[in-house]
Amino acid sequence: MKWSIKLGRLWGIDVFLHFTFILFLGWIAYSTWASQGLVPALSGVLLMASLFTCVLLHEYGHALTARRFGIATHDITLLPIGGVARLESMPTNPKQELLVAIAGPAVNVAIASAVGIILFIQGTPPPRQPANLLEGGLLWNLLRMNLAMILFNLLPAFPMDGGRVLRATLAFRLPFAKATRVAATIGQTMAILFALFALYHGHAPLLFIAFFVWTGAANEAADAEEDSLLAGLLVRDAMLTEYRQLSPSDTAQNTVQLILQGWQADFPVTLDGRLVGVVTRQDVVSALEGGLPFLPVSSFMRPTDRHCRPEDTLDTALNTLRNSGLPILPVLENGLLSGLLTSDNILETLLFRRTLARRLPPLLPS
Hints:
single chain, alpha+beta, 4-stranded mixed sheet, 57% helix
């Protein structure tokens, strides 16, 4: 994620801190120091750092459980609104999705239980000032916040974990796409109720949450519809077979001419029919901006190990394309380039598939 600082790598997953989180901590420290003094300010920063350690562990719960089902995690980023674990994909098996979704809140249950046991053994009463560390406020606040995270995350609405738990539970009896639509409808209904309550009581944070829930549910429903429309399609059903390709000896200027003469802006680079890299429009622009129009493609092409095969399913290839960070995905057959896959031709496939589904259901391509 852009504007993030890498904190490190734990259990094979990179952890990033978004710069807005640093601003958030700075704002808490300054506002608390200005109104209450230095010690409460330090207490507030320590409390928030401890809370987001719990958030990080929550995201690792999702990531490590997904890993057990062969799903990798690109990275985890901490934001002021929480954590984001970028999984390569969510499992479509209901049991697996249920376990991945519930793993995050389960971590918070474990943390809350451990903190509760410590407080019970110590006999520490609830403090009068929850943020005052000198009165045991850190542990009590951690307990309260982890309980709040459990309740919030288990709300049956996307994009919270509870929405995925609901979808997975429904998917045991319903098709995945229909289960998603039902769960999304429930989530959007909750969002409307949140918004009405927030407007009536003038509660701005709840209004933000309502918007967050509404858009999350809408996105999940759209993704599910997309997946259902792509079901049964292979890469060969949507790949481009008429395209230009470059050789490593072609120059930036040659590439500009190809861009201006045709529809293509991004090119595979091949040597004797074998893929050696990819050149995007931005790569060519960067070469020209550097005053190097005769620079060979081999000097600025992007080596890539991301590709697919004609017999791969289209939804799997789409995930590979998205995760590659490139605008094109080469299609290889017996080690040789046989086609290209782009977001545009997948969108066109979806458009025609959706139109056929509405007008001529019996004639849907398989």
